[in-house]
Design brief:
Blueprint (H helix, E strand, L loop, with lengths): L3 E6 L5 E6 L21 E3 L6 E6 L2 E4 L17 E2 L16 E5 L5 E3 L1 H7 L2 E9 L22 E10 H7 L8 E6 L12 E5 H4 L5 E6 L2 E2 L9 E3 L12 E7 L6 H4 L3 E3 L16 E3 L6 E6 L5 E2 L5 E8 L5 E7 L7 E2 L1 E2 L9 E7 L5 E11 L21 E7 L1
Parallel strand pairs: 1-3, 7-16, 20-27
Antiparallel strand pairs: 1-2, 3-4, 4-5, 5-6, 7-8, 9-10, 10-13, 11-12, 11-16, 13-14, 13-15, 17-18, 19-21, 21-25, 22-23, 22-26, 24-25, 26-27
The chain binds the ligand Nc1nc2c(c(=O)[nH]1)N[C@H]1C(S)=C(S)[C@@H](COP(=O)(O)O)O[C@H]1N2 and molybdenum atom.
Molybdenum atom binds next to loops.
Length: 401
């Protein structure tokens, strides 16, 4: 028997559980493609359809794989990832203010109405992917939230350019770092607040934005209502939700979530290192690596001999643009191209399709590899101690009868 948990956000940020004995609303095959721990616990979060629960305090929940057959991930199944359990019980859209302080000519306090009316709106299609997405597939196993492939989503983000906001505060040109903080807070004073930073040039590149809409709707509470920093092409850890504090520094910004957590081996392709010889030099995680995955048919599907199927999936990178997706049916000796859907922009994921007709019974194994416009592609094996940036080549085994 599978359970759905109802999770309510209770006053002053306590969570309150009600266990109900509903049966599993989705297929039991929503569990990723290769190994990895199967997720069998479903959760009904406020404003969401049933999703797969990873942890409940703080809330972490992933998107069932079947929703990745759409160009954009619906807001009500978009994955949820928080580090700190204390979320404000409610946010007043009229009283809410975004503050810009620090190394600026004039500190700014902006309402949501100011953002919508005083600045030029902009829109980008972009993938938000957790750095730890796919961590559950790492061998050897690494600690951390054990995501399958559902710790990501593609959305159309609308808001204002961060550059326009910083310019309007008169950010000083000797600024080195800009930091971003949201309204979530640690339940224990010993836990550092979740604050991230970007170097000045990146923050001012005209692409980083402060979004107030996701897929044409206000950002859902659990995805960071009312404002989310959108850092196209970079891992989700920088996409600060419930954003209400931006600070400019003439000096270096230092903080636990920049200098201790979310680090990857320096100068190594795909963040690679070996369990028995860990790299000594580490740097903050940054741009999304080239990767791809199978979405359909799901791994334990049985195909009919002689029938034509369309294998479908996704490929993405940090914004250089996916140019090629290939499938191998002979363990990588030869590769054939999959058909790419039209590009939705380089920061979006790109869907692909591959026709396959099983001519006889048995098990068919497929391997998948994406390449981007700079020629970067995926390695056979990828590993690091934190389970970040998963991009080892995926396989899919399908049975035909
Ligand atoms: N304020 C705040 N913003 C945050 C986080 C957080 O814990 N607090 N988590 C980050 C991480 S690691 C990810 S992957 C994305 C996830 O965004 P989502 O929950 O909207 O899918 O939010 C980022 N923004
Ligand atoms: Mo993340």
């Amino acid at each position: 028997m599978k359970f759905i948990r109802q999770l309510f956000l209770f006053s002053s940020s306590y969570l309150f559980f009600i266990f109900s004995s509903c049966t599993n609303p989705g297929s039991t095959t929503d569990k990723g493609n290769t190994a990895g721990p199967p997720k069998t616990e479903w959760v009904k979060l406020p404003g969401k359809r049933p999703m797969l629960l990873l942890t409940d305090r703080p809330i972490n929940a992933e998107t069932p794989l079947k929703y990745f057959l759409e160009d954009f991930t619906p807001n009500d199944v978009f994955f949820v990832r928080w580090h700190l359990a204390n979320l404000p019980p409610s946010i007043d859209s009229v009283k809410f203010r975004l503050n810009i302080t620090g190394n600026v000519d004039k500190e700014l306090t902006l309402s949501l109405n100011d953002l919508r009316t005083k600045f030029k709106p902009c829109t980008v299609n972009a993938l938000c992917i957790c750095a730890g997405n796919g961590r559950g597939f790492f061998t050897p196993h690494v600690p951390g939230v054990q995501w399958d492939n559902g710790g990501m989503g593609n959305a159309k983000w609308t808001g204002v350019r961060l550059k326009d906001i910083l310019d309007s505060a008169g950010v000083k040109t000797d600024s080195k770092y800009i930091s971003f903080n949201g309204m979530d807070s640690p339940p224990l004073p010993a836990t550092p607040d979740f604050v991230k930073s970007l170097v000045y040039d990146h923050a001012m590149d005209g692409e980083v934005m402060i979004a107030y809409e996701m897929n044409g709707q206000p950002i859902p509470y659990l995805n960071g209502y009312p404002l989310k920093l959108v850092v196209p092409g970079w891992y989700g850890t920088y996409w600060i939700g419930m954003l209400n504090e931006i600070k400019c520094y003439a000096d270096t910004f230092k903080g636990y979530w920049m200098n201790t957590a979310y680090l990857i081996p320096k100068g190594e392709l795909n963040g690679n290192e070996k369990p028995d010889s860990l790299k000594k030099q580490l740097i903050p995680i940054n741009k999304i690596d080239v990767s791809s995955l199978f979405v359909s048919p799901e791994p334990d599907s049985t195909l009919r001999i002689g029938k034509e199927y369309e294998i479908q999936g996704l490929a993405f990178d940090g914004g250089d643009g996916i140019t090629k997706v290939e499938i191998s049916q002979d363990s990588g000796k030869t590769w054939s191209p999959a058909a790419l859907d039209a590009s939705l922009g380089n920061y979006s994921w790109r869907r692909w399709r591959y026709k396959f007709t099983p001519v006889q019974g048995g098990v068919f194994s497929f391997f998948l590899k994406a390449t981007n416009s700079t020629g970067q592609t995926q390695p056979w094996h990828q590993w690091n101690r934190s389970g970040f940036m998963k991009n080892g080549i995926e396989s899919l085994a399908l049975k035909a009868e």
